[in-house]
Amino acid sequence: MVARAPDAGGQCRGIRLGNEDGLDHRVDSRDVTPLIAGLNAGDAGALDRVIALVYEELRRIAHRQLAGEQSGHTLDTGALVHEAYLKLRQLDRMQWRSREHFLAMAARVMRRVLVDYAEARRAQKRGGAQLPGAITAVSLAADQPGEEILALDEALRRLEALSERQSRVVECRFFAGMSVEETAAALELSEATVKRDWVAARAWLNRELTR
Questions:
Q1: Is residue 73 part of a domain?
Q2: Which long-range contacts (CB under 8 A, 24 or more apart) does 151-158 make?
Q3: How many CA atoms lie within 13 A of 150 on its CB side?
Q4: How many CB atoms lie within 10 A of CB 95?
């Protein structure tokens, strides 16, 4: 099995990344901004309200991360969104900057859930630990996609050690499906920097995953 780096369109074998229905589900940032401020101020109910407002976007991100090319692949976007919600609730010291920043963090959390699940499946196959009970509802397509998730995660960890900024660009562009403009807003970078980092990161990942 050889995993592939995301291409210019943000796709990788085993994980299909595209706007599946061709619709724009984005929420006006102005609607979210007051709630983001509430989150930072410690408003206990602000997270639930943000989640409700961007729920369709979270489902889109979850679907992108779960979608595979094998027939018989089972999607459970709701379970993945729920697990992301539970983990986001634990980030009590996070200073949220914007809607884009929130979605980027949600995408990172979802990736962590899937990596943990894939690692548990690998351990179970080897006679080790059981699958984490909280995420057994999250379904992956047999063995290959799980192995590809792990291969990509390991490569991203190596990339992060070299350039944390480039690894964050990959999270936004590849895992969250963000545009260059949205990625720039989430990471507080210029669009030119995002474009350069995206090209460089894809080239580096391609070398790592195909050697």
A1: yes
A2: 151/1, 151/3, 151/209, 152/3, 152/5, 152/12, 152/15, 152/205, 152/209, 153/111, 153/115, 155/3, 155/5, 155/205, 155/208, 155/209, 156/205, 158/208
A3: 15
A4: 9
Residue 7 lies in a domain: no
| In a domain? residue 147 | yes
- The answer to whether the beta carbons of residues 68 and 17 sit under 8 Å apart is no
Q: For residues 200 and 133, is the Cβ–Cβ distance under 8 A?
A: no
For residue 9, how far is the Cα from the chain centroid? 16
How many structural domains does the chain have?
Answer: 1
pLDDT averaged per 10 residues in sequence order, the chain, 211 residues: 52 38 48 89 91 94 74 64 92 88 94 86 66 41 61 92 96 92 95 97 92 76
The residue range of the domain holding 100 is 29-210
Residue 190 within any structural domain of the chain: yes
